[in-house]
From TrEMBL:
PANTHER family: PROTEIN CMSS1. It comes from the Eukaryota. Residues 45-58 have a biased composition (Basic and acidic residues). Residues 1-67 are annotated as: Disordered. Residues 27-39 have a biased composition (Basic residues). InterPro entries: Cms1 (IPR032704). It comes from Arabidopsis thaliana x Arabidopsis arenosa. The lineage of its organism: Eukaryota, Viridiplantae, Streptophyta, Embryophyta, Tracheophyta. This is Protein Cms1. GO terms for cellular component: 90S preribosome; nucleus.
Length: 284
């Protein structure tokens, strides 16, 4: 009987013989591409970014316009106009005559009026006695009444006050400046700090006035107030931020104005200042 050769049954490998399906993978790639495209900035967002850049450029132009050198007489005129519009005090020409040449500190035009140069500007404005006035600590030879700074830096916020203090670091190594604002600082802590010699103080109008009212902060040595003119991120400054503006003029009226009229106190307007003649040029 003839035997038939039995061929082994060939088992097909479904994975090897299966035709690869490229469809789903292509679809998946398409989906991935579509997903990436959806994350790309839309036309509206591109336009919005362009508008913001334009606005930033315009703001930068405005800052350059207001940062042009302004004479002491123009600064004084601007300050007195602000004083009159805020609290109705008008300084007569008779009162102004003895002090009009000296009550405004005219800063060096060689240095920008930014945080980093504040210490140098104040040093130059104090003349040859700057070291004794601004830097000297307690000495046995000469006793200075505690809590009486020679310079007060006044700004619209605690954050800005801290920034300005960094610019004064070179002057406050031997006699630390005092922080005169309310954020995270209790009145009692500041009263304790003011029991020592103080050359420079930096703070906000409301807390400065409160410390003067309770006789913790003295004015017997005060030679200069530095009025911070720089606008914040929203464009507000010490003269335009509503509540702070009122607090500043209340402080000035009750504590500084008479001293200015008597020639015992100078005003330093630090930062960009409006110049009427420059505004007119821009309109034309």
């Amino acid at each position: 009987m003839a035997t038939t050769e039995v061929k082994p049954y060939a088992v097909k490998n479904p994975k090897r013989n299966r035709r690869p399906s490229l469809g789903p993978k292509k679809d998946l790639k398409k989906k991935t591409k579509n997903t990436k495209k959806s994350k790309a900035p839309t036309f509206d967002k591109t336009i919005e970014k362009s508008i913001r850049n334009d606005q930033k450029t315009e703001n930068d132009d405005d800052e350059q316009l207001y940062s042009e050198p302004v004479s002491a007489s123009e600064q004084l005129s601007y300050f007195l106009n602000q004083l009159e519009s805020a609290i109705g005090i008008k300084v007569s020409s008779l009162e102004l005559e003895p002090i009009k040449e000296t009550c405004i500190v005219e800063l060096s035009q060689r240095l920008d009026q930014d945080v980093g140069n504040l210490g140098e500007h104040i040093k130059l404005s104090c003349g040859s006695s700057w070291r004794e006035t601004l830097c000297e600590g307690e000495t046995l030879e000469r006793k200075v009444e505690p809590g009486n700074p020679s310079v007060l830096v006044i700004s619209s916020s605690a954050l800005r006050s801290l920034e300005l203090l960094r610019g004064l670091h070179s002057l406050t190594k031997h006699c630390p400046a005092v922080k005169l604002f309310s954020k995270h600082l209790k009145v009692e802590e500041q009263v304790s700090l003011l029991k020592k010699r103080v050359n420079i103080g930096s703070g906000t109008p409301n807390r400065i006035k409160k410390l003067i009212d309770i006789e913790a902060l003295g004015l017997s040595r005060l030679d200069m107030i530095v009025v911070d003119m720089h606008p914040d991120v929203k464009g507000f400054s010490l003269f335009t931020l509503p509540q702070v503006r009122d607090e500043f003029w209340d402080l000035y009226k009750n504590c500084f104005h008479q001293r200015v009229l008597e020639g015992r106190l100078r005003i330093c307007m630090y930062g960009p200042k409006p110049a009427p003649n420059l505004k007119k040029k821009k309109k034309n």
